[in-house]
Amino acid sequence: MLATDTTATTRTIAASRTTGGRALSITLWTIQILLAAFLLIASAAPKFAGQRDAVETFAKIGWGQWFRYVTGVVEAAGAIGLLIPRLAAWAALGLIGLMIGAVITQVLVLVPAFAALPAVFGVLFAVIARVRMAQAVSPAALFRR
Description:
The chain is mostly helical. 81% of the residues lie in helices and 0% in strands. It has helices at residues 2-49, 52-61, 66-82, 88-108, 116-132, 139-142.
């Protein structure tokens, strides 16, 4: 009887972990899709379209409008990478770097209170990178034929 109880307990724990793992995966994919949509629609697109706010913001930063396009390309590439399982961890790591730059720029040049959003995004990208790294392709494999 004890062996049966132990086996049943083991099965329950395994099922719980599988269900929890599935829930985590669904939650993380939902967050990745939402972040990718935000990066593409609300962040990169206005930079590419030359929206007045984006142009003015990058004028305040003082690095020239070319930097607006570079930032938009990095955001768009990161957003697309977040949606590809083998690239999601690497995209998240790259976006962490972008968010660090955004926080520093907000604090030193723009409006310090607005640094909270890229800081939160950076934490989310760190979680994505950590969890998705097991699925990531090695960087060397990306460039092999």
